[in-house]
Amino acid sequence: MKIKHQLAIFNALTRLLVILVLWLMLPILVENVVYRHINNGLVEKKKKFIEHLNQNEIDDFIVNADDSTETYSQFSSLHSEFLVLSRLQKLPNQEKTTFVNENRIIEGEENEYRILQYHFTYENIGYELEIGSSLAEVKDLTFIIKLFIIIVLVVIVLITFLADTFYIEYLLKPFYKIIDTKIRRVNEPEAFDHTPIKAHSADFRELDSVLNQMMDRIGELFKKEKQFISNVSHELLTPIALLKNKFENLLQNESLNDNAVDKIVSSLKTLDMLKKIINNLLLISRIENNQYAANEVINFHEIVSGLYEDLQDRIDDKEIAFSNKMEHDFNFVGNKTLIHILLYNLVTNAIKYNKEKGSIVVSDGFLNQQYYLSISDSGIGMNETQIENIFNRFTRINSDQEGQGLGLAIADSIASFHHIDIKVTSKPNEGTTFLLLFPNSIKA
Amino acid sequence: MNILIVEDNKELAIEVRDFLSDGGYVCKIANTCNEALDEIGGNDYDAMLLDLGLPDGDGFDVLKAVRKTKSKIAVIVITARGGLDDRIDGLHLGADDYLTKPFALTELSARLFAVIRRMHGYTLNDLVVHGFSLQLQDYKVSYEGMPINLTKKEFDIFQYLVLNKNRVITRLQLTEHIWGDILEINSDSNFIDVHVRNLRKKLDKHTTIDWFETVRNVGYRINT
Question: Could you list the residue ranges that cross the membrane (chain B) (predicted)?
Answer without folding.
Answer: none
